[in-house]
Amino acid sequence: MNTQAKTRVVTRGTVTIDVDQCKGCELCIAACRPGVLEMSTELNETGYRFPLLSPGCTACRACRDVCPDYCFEVFKFDVPIETDS
Ligand code: SF4
Ligand code: SF4
User: Which residue from 46, 53, 57, 76 puts its CA 20 to 30 A from 33's CA?
Assistant: First the structure.
């Protein structure tokens, strides 16, 4: 029997991230209410860390609206996806 606790995560959309446009300001990290963005440990081609997406995006577009370098495109799913975290 698997005794590990699992949490259901609902993902309502996704984003594309133009990582090589990113200047590493981290504004998107603070703007993402569900907290599904975190900065990478690796660097992009200009030497900045960049955001990575985990499951649970709500397609709220806050990251796209706050990013000064237009790195995000946001796509809302017709049907949300549920996964175990
Ligand atoms: S669209 Fe909203 S939930 Fe999804 S990554 Fe951007 S800020 Fe986070
Ligand atoms: S807001 Fe834009 S430039 Fe700033 S870290 Fe996020 S993706 Fe990079």
Answer: 46
Q: List the structure tokens of 21.
A: 């446009």
- pLDDT tens sequence across 41-74: 999 999 999 999 999 999 999 999 999 999 999 9
Query: What is the SS3 assignment for 53?
Result: strand
Instruction: List the domain range (segments joined by +) for residue 53.
Output: 8-75
Query: What CATH number does the domain containing 71 carry?
Result: 3.30.70.20
Count of domains forming the chain: 1
* Residue 24 · residue 38 · CB < 8 Å: no
The partner residues of 9 in beta bridges, in order of sequence, read 83
User: Using CA atoms, how far apart are residues 4 and 26, in angstroms rounded to an integer?
Assistant: 32
Cβ of 61 closer than 6 Å to ligand 1, yes or no, is yes
Whether ligand 1 lies within 6 angstroms of the CB of 31 is answered as: yes
- Domain annotation covers residue 36: yes
